[in-house]
Design brief:
Blueprint: H1 2-23, E1 24-27, E2 31-37, E3 40-41, E4 49-52, E5 58-64, E6 68-75, E7 87-95, H2 101-107, E8 113-114, E9 120-121, H3 124-139, H4 144-147, H5 151-169, E10 175-185, H6 188-238, H7 241-256
Antiparallel strand pairs: 1-4, 2-3, 2-5, 6-7, 7-10, 8-9
Amino acid sequence: MKSLSALGVIFPTLLVGALVYLSAYTVETGNVAVERTLGKINHDEQQQGLNFKMPLLTTAREFSAKEIAIDIDDLKPKAADNLSLKDLDVSIFYRVPDHRVSELVVKYAAASGRGPDGIYLPGFGLVIREARSVIYEQVSQIDSLELHKRRELLQGNVQQELQARLERSDPGDIMITRVVVRALNTDPSIEAAIRDAVEAEKRLEAKQVQVEIAKKDAEIEIERAKGIAEANGIINESLTAEYLQHEVNIALQEFADNQGSVVVIPANMQGFDLILDSNQLGGTRNPQ
């Protein structure tokens, strides 16, 4: 009797515990749960924390409402000059607003991916399919020699076009937050052409700098010549016959003031009158 009584207590307790276990579940921060009861989706997404559902009749899948990254690797699109890239790796980052997850799950039932942590990724297949198409399209609009220098432009164009396509088909459901080109490798022959083009551009820049330096040097020489010419003009204007006569007289007087020493007067002093102090030349002698 005691065994039956104990069993009567334990069994209901175990049953209640099992029902509680089957009806309760938790949702991690940044995620939502989508419940399905007898095949019907509940469009009220369950938020983070402890939630309850009907045991056995209702299933709950946890979907990420955080930013999701998709790595698309080993692409070989053709550029605008019809040359194929050797390797292109792109990462697409997107998120689905938590209140739109259930609608996306219903519309694209097979498009949800599943992360390594077991969390479902809404719209994963849709985004990756559209992204590949957009990447090929946008690469085809840029020459292969320009892709390295225009990587940011390529990223912006892919993000803008991908968002536009998703808005046309599913407005407000998917937001492309960013696009990152992780690797962009062209054909080796193209790489060599890029290096040659860069070197040629650097040489051209150096030549342009040299030309500018030469121009400045020439301008300096011109200004210097102008200054010398102006100075010479001023000097020439000031060298009058009277001024030169005055300077000769002063020089001869200084030579004569030497206590009877010999004074040499050049023979080509024509045109100048010698004005000498007789006292400095001995007083009683007359110059001949």
